[in-house]
Structures are given as structure tokens and as C-alpha cells.
Amino acid sequence: MRECASAGPGRSGIRPRGPGRRPNRPHSRSGVVLLVEQRQRPDPGPVRTKAAPAGETRVVSWSHTGLEAVARFLGERTGLSFAVNRQASAEQGIRRLMRRAGIADPRAYRDLIQNDAHAFDELIVELTVGETYFFREPAQFEFLRREVLPEIVRRREPEQVIRAWSAGCASGEEAYSLAILLDEQGLAERSQVLGTDISRAALARARQAVYGPWSLRGDGAARARTYLRPDGNRFRLVETVRRRVNFEHLNLALDTYPSFSLGIWGMDLILCRNVLIYFDPDTVRTVAGRLFETLAPGGWLIAASSDPPLSGLAPFDVV
Known about the structure:
By secondary structure, this protein is of the alpha/beta class.
């Protein structure tokens, strides 16, 4: 297990600290966290601040206790959390959806999202930024091509399937980027790619595999064009790539993985990028542990430069 963080001229290493095991679960003895490029972190979005010490007044910026109840319910169900400086924008998003639903009372809207899966999904989409495009952070994909995939091939027997998972795949560009990379390296026939997301609407778009120019921005996206065909003013991914990616609904904050029945186990490679920034610290710790358990022995976990550091949250190696 290795975590590679480039935060300046030096690097630090942490030796393996041994595995942890949970009963009745697939188990991983080792894994890798990789941060190819550690830039100055942008504003991380909705992440909970620490509770005020005893004797101090807690600042509450919600304009209505019903809105705070909506946010609390969302956090309980998804692990999403909102710093004080993000509560105003979250409130605006909640009120937009309330107007769309014709609801004036936040408490009534709280009841709606509890009982209506579509309304709940709409709220998730409204309050999270589904920012994704093909081959986002191309330096990481280059590292996958140059270092990670050759190491996995050496470790795996020729008849063994290479298993990759895009955790928090949004509308699918990241998962399909993985499938394209595997195809470029001649590994398409011996690999499986899974994409999961909490938003059913995003997963529906991922399965359609039809994208506009905005999904093809950035330095790395040009390599995806070979696998896209014009479809009106948009582009449709070729069938050979589409059929190699399976999309499933998953809430990373819930205790439902690793799982043999869901096919979320024994992963050689996990990409969980720009997802953990939305979770409170306790949920980050829990998710890190579950991701660790989902890795195959020697597997790799790839995080984004903006994600919180995972060293110390699970027995990952750091180099």
C-alpha cells in the first residue's frame, strides 16, 4: 500500500501497519492511496466544521429551523455536511426545489424528501457539484498508464480479471475514461469497470453515454474523441466501451460494501476523487476504512488533489 503525495521537493513514507478485518466481509490485506498532484486546496465545499467547545455559542446561519432539519436529514442519509460559510448557498438550493415542488413550509419539504426518492435525488444533485469530464487530472491517468496498470498486470495471473471501480462516478465520464485507458493498454477483454453514484439521475445519464462539449474540455479529453461518435450536437460513446462499464446505485456513507452480492469487492483499482470533500470527518474516516476493505491485496486507491488526506484513517502505506 502506498500513498504518493507531492507537496513540495520531499516525500514521506509510512510503513504498513497491518490489516484490519471485519466479520462476514471480503477482506483486503493491502491497498494504495495515490495523490499524484497535491496543489493548494480549493474551497472544499460543504464540509462540517468542528462543534464549538463547551461554553461557546454555536453559530447557526440557517434562517429557518425547518431548513436546518432538511440539511440534518440529508446528512444522516448521505454523510453530506455543510460548513457555516456554505449554509447560505445550501439554503438557496433547498428553497429553489421547494418552489419547484410548490411547497412553502421547509418541514413539509423535509417530509417530502423522506418519502419521495425522486425528490431526495433532486436535492442531492442540487447541493453537490457534479463536476466531471473525460480524463480529468490527466497526470493521474498518465500515472495509471505508466505505473499502476503495469504493476497490476504483473501481480495478476493472465486469466484473472482486472477489476476497477469509479466510486462517485456522477454522469460516467471518469468510469468511461478508465475503460478507454484499459482499451488503449490492450486490457479491455480482461477487465471490468464499475461506476457507482448516489444520484440515480446521474447514473441514468451515465448509462446513456451521450455527452456534450463540456465533458470534453481539458488537456486529457482529446484521447476520448476516438471513442465518440457524433449524435446531433452531442457525442455518443462507442458500444465497445459502453458495454464494459456497469453502473450501480450506491451510497458511500452506508454500510453496504464491500459486498460480494453487489460486486463491490476485490478491486485492483479504485478511483474516489472529489467525493470525500463533501463528507464530514467522521464519514471520511468510515468511508476510507470501507474503501480499504474493498481493495484486493496490493490494490490501488486513487484520490484527488482536493480530497482530505487518508493516511491514518485506514492502514494504507504512504510513500
